[in-house]
Structures are given as structure tokens and as C-alpha cells.
Amino acid sequence: MLNKKFVINIIGLVLVFEAFFMLISAFVSAIYGESDLIPLLLSTLITFVIGGGAWFFSRNASKDLGKGEGFIVVSFVWVFMSVFGALPFIFNGDIPRFTDAFFEAMSGFTTTGASVLSDIEAVPHGVLFWRSTTHLIGGMGILVLAVAILPYFGFGGMQLYNAEAAGVTNDKLHPRITQTAKSLWGIYMLLILVQTIFLLFGGMSLFDALCHSFGTVASGGFSTKNDSIISYSPYIQYVIIVFMFFAGTNFTLFYFLWKGKFKKIVHNKELQIYSLVLIVSSVVIAVTLSLSASAAEYEKNFRDALFQVTSIVTSTGFVTADYTIWHPALTYIIFLLMFAGASTGSTSGGIKIMRHHILIKNTMLEFKRMIHPSAVVPLKIRDKVIQKEIVYKVLAFVMMYFVIFVMGSLVLTFFGMDMDSSMGAAATTMGGIGPGLGTVGPMNNFAAVPEGAKWVLSFLMLLGRLELFSVLILFSPEFWKNS
Amino acid sequence: MLNKKFVINIIGLVLVFEAFFMLISAFVSAIYGESDLIPLLLSTLITFVIGGGAWFFSRNASKDLGKGEGFIVVSFVWVFMSVFGALPFIFNGDIPRFTDAFFEAMSGFTTTGASVLSDIEAVPHGVLFWRSTTHLIGGMGILVLAVAILPYFGFGGMQLYNAEAAGVTNDKLHPRITQTAKSLWGIYMLLILVQTIFLLFGGMSLFDALCHSFGTVASGGFSTKNDSIISYSPYIQYVIIVFMFFAGTNFTLFYFLWKGKFKKIVHNKELQIYSLVLIVSSVVIAVTLSLSASAAEYEKNFRDALFQVTSIVTSTGFVTADYTIWHPALTYIIFLLMFAGASTGSTSGGIKIMRHHILIKNTMLEFKRMIHPSAVVPLKIRDKVIQKEIVYKVLAFVMMYFVIFVMGSLVLTFFGMDMDSSMGAAATTMGGIGPGLGTVGPMNNFAAVPEGAKWVLSFLMLLGRLELFSVLILFSPEFWKNS
Questions:
Q1: What's the gap between Cα A115 and its chain centre?
Q2: How many whole angstroms separate alpha carbon A95 and alpha carbon A118?
Q3: Please, what sign has the CA dihedral across residues B300, B303, B308, B311?
Q4: Do A302 and A313 form a contact (C-beta atoms < 8 A)?
Q5: In A319-328, which positions are buried (b, 16+ CB within 10 angstroms) versus exposed (e)?
Q6: Which DSSP letter does residue B176 get?
Q7: Residue B379: φ, ψ to 5°
Q8: How many DSSP H helices and E strands does chain A contain?
Q9: Tell me: the pLDDT tens digits for A297-312?
Q10: How far apart are CA B367 and CA A155, in angstroms?
């Protein structure tokens, strides 16, 4: 029997937590003395009462748990957070329709950053702060999920996080989940703090600096400006590049940095490949852009290339240039990078470098296996043998990722979106990025997307953020038969 | 040590065989009394002398063979056939440039059907017949390859052909390769003969009927008309639909039909799924097309849908309608079907139904494995357990297919082709289909494609036709270290 009470208890608790953050946005509103104070307080109240009530009446839930409860909690938490997170947008009338407001909130909590807002600068500060706070919360959520919960579920090869990147099995980053979570959240908050200071130095207001830091370190991408990062100074753009890079790094490596274990950082295979992908892609794009440009534009081309590549690979989604008007090869590279993802154990979404590495390595080994059919050819990363079961799960994950991408984009075309826009929209939402191609490109937003398509895209964001299987398993009869 | 003499011997023999077929085209030219007689005779002579010479001087090659020789022979045979097969196009001036003529010949021998000819009807009968003959030869080649040679190489899960579809392991279609090949060729020729008769009944000339039958049963797609099958009668279009369907069926099933083993046909899983894919896709397309059409167009819409779906899935590439001007969802479906492929053991190219079936089934089983982590959950097809090793190889194959698709299309965008055209061109050549999207759509041809891109596309045709690994392995250092 499914332990329903426990599920309700946890979701209630998370909603109380959400209400607390809403209250902070209400304070921001009070500071600016704007019209959104009452809507924000009302949202806080509703969320607190319903969340607190659910938590209170289920407080005697037994602690008898299986994986089933885990799967349900994870998916439902994101959905309920988005339902209540949509309230401020609706109550203040910035995004009056529920579909749109839910899309915006889901985009925030999944740290995607795709927006339906056409005029962001018309939205009052309290609601805008709430919008960026959804990234902050989403980022915190995903860190716990990636390190503590998903490896326990045992799918998609996330066990690798332990095996390769670090800590949990070999070095015991911290023996207990709550301790691990607290360490990661400490690093997360520290990164936000440091980035905010750097942005303040660049002349940003405290409000904008905080919102952009939330958006960066959570790899979200909501900006407080209509043109994202385009009009900011090169200094600010470089600061954001650096912190996007950090957000896409395995957070355990910052722990090693703290402990002075530099060797562990330098030898981290995923960090090496992640850096290589960024450098090679940026150089190819910068050089191609510069072929038809004057020397005066070289620095800007390099900066735009590095910014867009880092923004897409880390699944942040901030924009400094319209990559859809670049040479078709460059637009295509950006589209392909939407399937990259950054490091495991970071806030970034998508497939992630480690999985790609395993797949490519395994495919190369296939040749060896073909030439020596009877030999045992194991896959190793830094001399550690990766179990065949894990390779198998990684293969299944990536396969499922593409199946969902194809089915998702196909459904979007049935809503009348053209092929490029559909593929771009599916790729960018699954990867948790933000901007896509065509009608949902970096200079557009998702306002004009058909109503039904917005629900599809919200679902794709959820799927991508929760590593597919933890959501999909809820649709499997086998799951309910066993619960 | 690589047995080079043996490789030369086999290639020489194949060229002699090719010269024999060229001579037939010369006869056709003589019948029509056209200008291409001398060019065809010259091509025949050159091919015969070089092929025969190579064969003669290597006739004492030892029979000491490994897989290495097999891999080399397979790739080189297709390349050399295309080099010599390009001669008639060049000598008669229909396709004066070598790049273009090689592309056309490779497209023929790989039974792709992508063409650089803008005015097909201006080409004399002898050369046109040679063009269709490349399909005939390519189809014969692939039948032997699929049944006798690729399973022996042991990659991409082609062993399945034996395990599931039939004959070779369980029922011993014929114990010896040559016997098997002869049986398959018998079925192949019979299908061509029957289709030719049906087309003659529809009022086609013998010449056109033969050429179109070659193009159909080999799943090639070269037509003798500028507008492919568009202007032909509904009767002829239906005949071609039926024979495209046959060409995409596992040829062993025809053997069972002959032997009266109907149960084996009805219970064939791949045939069932293959049929289902065709029916579901056609119905979705026909209904969507008919939503905005008058009742008078229903039959034509159904016919166009069924024709295009069958043509793409079987990798034939004949055209009766411009699917690029359909509703974006329908164009996208056609694009996705370019990755389908028909049955194993047929003349069709691409990934093929059986591999998709295994992947989808395996992904579904992942859920079961997640819920019961310690249980052994084997993959079964019709109660037969498919070895994990084979599932693994299928996964690696499909992964490699997409990696090459992505890399191939990326290279094409660097030649300045737009994203849709590049993706369409890479998908259609790898799948051995013919028409793509955008500038290489069904109403266009490959004449305007940049020179370098034509070489890339020729290589993609070869890769796709030879199931990737048998070509790619030649680029692996491991291979040459062992040979």
C-alpha cells in the first residue's frame, strides 16, 4: 500500500517552505511600495494555509517508505509548487491566465527560464523577485535531488555521480543526506552571494544583481530585462559567463576546492570534457562569426560565442546575441548543444556530459568488441570499470530522451508550430534551457505558443528536470501494481 | 597479414560482373539507336579489362581469410562499383563532372535514388537503363550482405535476422551461403518480373516498366520521369505501393509463402509492426490532409499518404506528392519516418523495424527493472529471449546512427546548406531513401548541392547501406593493428 499520508506530509511541508519565500517577495514589494503587495500576501496566505494544513493533518504519517513514495513525491512537489507559484502572477494580473502563469512558474522551478512575458520591465518588483525566486528554489531542489535522491532511484546511470565525480561512496562527502544537502546549499548560496557582489561592482542595482544571480547559479535564465543580458556591459557579461560555468560544474568540486584537494578537481574527467566542449564550440563559433567581420568586432564575437555556448550548455538560457541569424552551421551547433547538458551534480539540466562521455566511449569500444568478439572489453573511466548495468541504463536514458524529444516536438507541430520552432521548443524545455529556435527563438518568447502546446512544454520541462524516468514511471501500470 | 590478393580478386570479379550488366545497357542503347552506344561500350570495355585483369593476376590468392578481408571487400566493392559505374554518365556527357557522376552511381548502387539530374527525360535510353541497373545490382548485393555476410560480422544486432526472422539458424533456409543467395535472388527476380507485368498492364512501356521495377524491388527510387510517379495513373501508383511494400519485407517470408508455411508469415513480429507503422502513419496523414479538402480528393489524399509513407519507410524514394508543403506535422512525420527503415533481410535501408522494436521494448523493460532492481528481466520476442549482448549491440548501432546523422548534417550546414535541408539530406542518404527536405525536397534534386557536400552525402549513403560499422571499422586503428 502506498503511504499517501507521507506524500501529503512532505508536499505540505514544501508548500510552507514556498510560502516563506513568497513572503520575502512581499517584503521586496513593500520596499518598493508597489501595487503587488496585496496579491503577494494573498498568495503567501493561501499557500501557507493549504500547505500547513496538509502538513498538520498528516503529521502522524508512518515512516514506512518505499521507492514508490519517493517517485510520487518528487514529481508532485514540482507540480504543486508550480500551481501555487503561479498565484502571484495571476493575482497581480501580470499573467492573468492560469495556463500561462503555470507555464511561467514551472519554467522557474525547473530552472528553464522560458517565459510568456512580453514586457518584463512592466512587471512590478515584488512579482519579478518572486519570478526569480522560483529559480532559487528550483536550484536548491535539484541539488538535493541529483545528489541524494536520484542515485537512490537507480536509473539513467545517475549512480555515476557517486562512482566518478566524487564523494558519496568513496570519500563520503558527508554520510547523511541532510548534511550533504546543507553543504551543497551552502556552496550554492555562497556562489549567489559572490556573483551578486561582482554584479554590484559592475553597476547593477541590488535588485537586478540578486535576480540575475538566482538565474545564473540555478542555471535558470529569467532576466529582469526585456532584452536579457544584451544591453549590459562586457564586464557584466563576462561575470555571468564565469558563474554560468560554475553553475554547470559538479558542486562537489567546490567542496574539494574548500578542502584544498586540487588534484581531485584537475583530474575530474567530466570537468575536463565540459570545459573542452565549451572552448571548442566557442572558438568555432567565434572564428566563423569573425570571418565576415572587422577586427573591431572580434572581441564582441568571441564574447557572444562564449556567452551563448556557456548559456546553452549549462542550460541557463540568458541571451546576448540572436544565434538564429548566424550562419546556419552556427545555429545548428547551438541547437545540438541543447542536447549537451553540463556536469552531473550541478544545477544544469539535459543529458549531461558524463552520459555523453560513457556513450561515446562505449561506441568506440564496440569496434574493439567486433574485432575481438570473445574478449571482455570493459568501459573504464580513469581506471575505474563502469559496470555494464550502468552503461546499459545510460543507453536507455539517452534513447528515452530522444524518443520523448521526437514525440514532444511532433505533438507541437500538430498545434501548428513549424518544424524548426517545434524542435527548438522541445529541445530547450527538455534541457531546461529557455530560448529555442524560430518563433520561440532568443528574441521571442513563448506568449504566442498555442494553449495546448504550453501544457506539453510544461510537461517536457518537468520530464527533463526530473531525469525522465522519475516522472514516466508514474505512467507505468507496473508501478501502480506494486504500490 | 591482410590477404590483399584475395581482396583484389573479389573486387575484380565484381567488376567483371558489372561490365556484363553494362553490356546489357549497351544493347538497350543499340535497340533505340541512340548516341550513347559508344560511351556505354567504352565503359564496358574499361570496366571489363581492369576488373578482369585484377581478377586474373590475383587468381592464385590463398583462401586464408579473416573478418578483416570481409570488411575491406564489402566497403571497397561499393566504392569501386561506383567509380566504374560513373563512366557511362561521364562519357555520354549526361553528368560530365566526376563528383556528380560518382554521386549518381553511389546513389544507385546503395539503392538510395538521390539524383543530380535535372532533366532525366533528356538522357538517352541506354544510360537511363544503366542508371536503373545500378539499383538492380545494388539490391542483389544487399540481399547477400544482409543474409550471409553482415550476421557473420556480428554487429548492430544483425544476428537477429537469424534469430527472429527465420531460416538460417533454426529452419536452415539453405545451409550454404551461395544457395541462400541464389534463393533470395530468385525471389528478387520474380518480384521484378511480376511487377513489370503489372506495370505493362497499366500501359507503361516495357522500358519504363523494367526501370521502375528495378527501382521498386531494390527500394532504390530512380525514375525515368522528371516528376517521378506523379503523372502516372492511380492503378500504376497502387501497383508500385504494393511492390514497395514487398521490397521492404523480409525476403525469407516469400520463401515461406512458397513452401506454404503461412503461420510463420502471419506470426512474424517484424512484419506485423512494419505493417502497423505504414497503416497508422498513412491514416494520420490521409485524415489530416482530408480535413481541409473536398470529398472528391479523399481517395487521392489516401493514395498520396500511403504512397509517400511506404516510399519513405521502405527507403525507396519515389514521389507522388510534395510532402514539404503539407501541414508541418505531416512533413515532420515524413522526416521522422526517414529513420524508420523497413524489415531486416529486405532491400530497404536505415535503422529497420526490428531494431526499433528491440529498443522500445527494452526501454519499457527499464521501468520493470527500476521497480524490481534485483529481478532479471530479459527481453523476449515471441517467447525467445534476446541475448543482452545483442540488445547492447542494437543500442550501440542506433546511437552511432544518430551520431553520424548529427555530424553529417552539421558538416552540410558548414557548406552553407540551411538546417532543414542539411538534416533532410543526411537522413535521406543515410537511410538510402532519396528525397529530403528544403532545397533537396521531393520536387528538387541534388544538382545544386555544393561539391564537397556531395562527397559527404556519397559517404553517408555508403555508411547507411553497409550498416555503419563495416565501413567505420576501416577507420579504427585497432582494425589495422590486427590485420
A1: 14
A2: 10
A3: negative
A4: no
A5: bbbbbbebbb
A6: S
A7: -90, 125
A8: 23, 2
A9: 999 999 999 999 999 9
A10: 9
Cβ of residue A335 closer than 8 Å to a chain B Cβ: yes
Contact B166, B245 (CB under 8 A): no
- Residue B384 has what DSSP assignment? E
Q: Find, among A355, A386, A281, the residue nearest to A323 by Cα.
A: A281
R_g over Cα of chain B:
22
CA B179 to chain centre: 23
- Cβ B425 vs Cβ B412: under 8 Å: yes
Contact A106, A131 (CB under 8 A): no
Half-sphere exposure of B57 (CA within 13 A, CB side): 7
Question: Which cell is B236 given?
Answer: 500504376
Residue A167 has pLDDT above 90, yes or no: no
C-alpha distances out from residue A423 to A322, A332, A367, A439, B279, Å: 17, 12, 32, 11, 25
CA–CA dist B350, B338 (Å, integer)? 8
CB contact under 8 A, B469 and A367: yes
Q: Which residues of A touch B473 (CB under 8 A)?
A: 367, 370-371
Predicted confidence at residue A175, as pLDDT, reads: 52
Tell me the pLDDT of chain B (483 aa) as tens digits.
678 888 999 999 999 999 999 999 999 999 999 999 999 999 999 999 999 999 999 988 877 777 778 788 888 999 999 999 999 999 999 999 999 999 999 999 999 999 999 999 999 999 999 999 999 999 999 888 776 666 666 555 555 444 333 333 333 444 556 777 788 889 999 999 999 999 999 999 999 999 999 999 999 999 999 999 999 999 999 999 999 999 999 988 998 888 888 988 998 899 999 999 999 999 999 999 999 888 889 999 999 999 999 999 999 999 999 999 999 999 999 999 999 999 988 999 999 998 999 888 888 887 787 777 777 778 887 777 877 778 888 888 898 999 999 999 999 999 999 999 999 999 999 999 999 999 999 999 999 999 999 999 999 999 999 988 888 888 878 777 766
Which grid cell is A456?
506539453
The verdict on pTM exceeding 0.95 is no
Which runs of E-coded beta strand occur in B155-213? Answer: none
Taking the C-alpha atoms of residue A38 and residue A88, their distance in angstroms, rounded to an integer, is: 9
Q: Which residues of A touch B360 (CB under 8 A)?
A: 403
The three cell numbers of residue B81 are 562499383
Instruction: State whether A328 and B479 contact (CB < 8 Å).
Output: no
The DSSP 8-state label assigned to residue A117 in this structure reads -
Model confidence at A159, in pLDDT bands (50, 70, 90)? low
Q: Which three cell numbers stand for residue A33?
A: 511600495
Residue A167, C-beta contacts closer than 8 angstroms, at least 6 positions apart: A173, A174, A252, A255
DSSP percent split of chain A into helix, strand, coil, nearest 5? 70, 0, 30
Minimal Cα distance from A418: which residue of B? B328
Question: Which pLDDT score, from 0 to 100, does residue B171 have?
Answer: 39
Structural contact between residues A96 and A174, judged by C-beta atoms closer than 8 angstroms: no
| 437-476 in chain A: CB under 8 A from chain B | 469, 472-473, 476
Which of B155, B333, B335 shows the shortest C-beta gap to A370? B155
Rounded distance between C-alpha atoms, residue B317 and residue B309, angstroms:
10
User: Would you call A401 an interface residue with chain B, using a CB distance cutoff of 8 Å?
Assistant: no
Phi and psi (nearest 5°) for A365? Answer: -65, -25
Greatest CA separation for chain B: 74
As given in the structure block, the three cell numbers for residue A292 are 565576415
Q: Which residues in chain A have their CB less than 8 angstroms from residue B359's CB?
A: 399
CB-defined contacts A:B, below 8 A: 126
Which amino acid would we find at residue B291? L
DSSP state of A355: H
Q: Is A368 near chain B, with CB under 8 Å? A: yes
User: What pLDDT is stored for residue B303 in this prediction?
Assistant: 97
What are the grid coordinates assigned to A43, written together? 498568495
Cα–Cα distance, A453 to A118 (Å, whole number): 18
